[in-house]
Design brief:
This protein has a domain at 62-196: Porin (Beta Barrel). It is built from one helix and eight strands; from the N terminus they run αββββββββ. The protein has one helix at residues 3-19, and strands at 62-69, 82-91, 98-114, 117-134, 141-158, 161-178, 184-187, 190-196. A hairpin with a 6-residue loop joins strand 4 (117-134) and strand 5.
């Protein structure tokens, strides 16, 4: 075989080797695999990101407001506010602002016996709560209005004196609480204490 044919054969062999499909790597060959990254890719209008809502303790909230009230002309006998009853409430909506509602009928009866005589109180009241819970991540606030209507009767008997003091009427109070167990809203002769479930 002439040198010319040998060179031509080698040239053709090298050309075929370069153009031939690559075979699977053998056990001694190193394989490099690129890992896919979980980064979003833009398609058409860009990346769509769904924001997550900040958590709020207002969602599904329920609890009670304990009503403490001075019944009757308390200054006559030096009485302190008494726990007259509780008004249960709960959130009634699934979105911000979270609406809050509650209602209860409260009755209270007591007789104070002292050296100077007796002081008896009967007290009946309907309380309706309405409002909202707002805020998130530990800064939640409960703002409500308490609509109250009812009547009370106080009878004082002392050393030959007997006096009766009936009352009936309606009243509305604006109440604000941080969302914490035991938070209190109060005014002259009344207090509401928040209890969370």
């Amino acid at each position: 075989m002439s040198l010319k044919k040998v060179l031509l054969f080698m040239f053709v062999f090298m050309f075929i080797s370069a153009c031939a499909p690559k075979s699977e790597p053998g056990p001694s060959e190193e394989v490099r695999v690129e890992q896919a990254t979980p980064t979003p890719t833009e398609m058409g209008g860009g990346v769509v990101i769904t924001p997550t809502k900040p958590s709020s303790r207002c969602a599904g909230l329920s609890g009670t407001l304990e009503l403490q009230i001075l019944v009757g002309p308390a200054e006559a006998v030096g009485l302190e506010p008494v726990a007259a009853g509780e008004i249960p409430f709960n959130v009634v909506s699934d979105e911000v602002p979270y609406l809050v509602e509650g209602t209860n009928a409260i009755s209270y009866e007591n007789v104070l016996e002292a050296v100077w005589g007796t002081y008896s109180v009967t007290f009946d009241m309907d309380v309706n709560l309405r409002g909202e819970c707002t805020g998130s991540q530990g800064g939640e606030q409960l703002d409500m209005v308490a609509d109250m209507s009812g009547n009370q009767n106080v009878v004082v008997v002392s050393e030959g004196f007997s006096g009766e003091y009936p009352w009936s009427g309606t009243h509305s109070l604006e109440l604000s609480f941080p969302l914490e167990e035991g938070a209190t809203a109060q005014g002259e002769g009344w207090a509401f204490v928040l209890h969370l479930k």
